[in-house]
Specification:
Oligomer: single chain
Strand content: 5-15%
Number of helices: 5
Number of strands: 5
Strand order of the largest sheet: 1-2-3-5-4
Radius of gyration: 21 Å
Distance between the termini: 60 Å
Length: 210
Amino acid sequence: MPRKHLTVADVPGLLEASKAELGPQSDEKERPWIDRYGFLKSKGYTLDERYAPDWVPSWASEPADEYLVRGNKWYRTHEDAFADRGARMYVKDAVRMTDGLQVIVKLALAGTTELEILQYLSTADDPGNSAQRVLDAFPVPEDDPVYNSEGDSELQGQAMYIILPLARDWRHPPFVVAPEGLAFIQQLLVHRLYSIMHPVNLCALGKHLL
């Protein structure tokens, strides 16, 4: 009778250990989104299953010895092992449950004019206005981890969730021919002219405006 190969899920404690090492619990910027999963789902938006409290990793059925040898490189073959460490403390992608639309969930900190500016741009009907439209906005509940950050004056008061359409990074894919770069610069200049002609402080939106 052939010997059964134990999977990660078969070895007591190994599955939880792998989740602790490769899951969002291991990163302080990702960990709060586990607590937000249920609330956002109640609002109609689903984060990646990686943040679900009952998440079962895709590698649970992989051979246990494979994890011991190359588990720290599983992000190359298992999407849910990829840690989102790129300054994503306040931004995360999600799916709108009603129609499957990919969206961005963004935390607007209290004391900023970010939501006000985005709502203004969302209602401004002008060919020069290329800003993303706000799809939804609602208050962050009082028990959200964002209010537990110590020493950050921006977090004092009511924060808001902002829902925006998902847009790709302007740098990917890279420009191949000169006209592509020129067309991009032209779009930036047109939008910059629009912002000059309207009472909009783009600096309040930060570098992620693009």
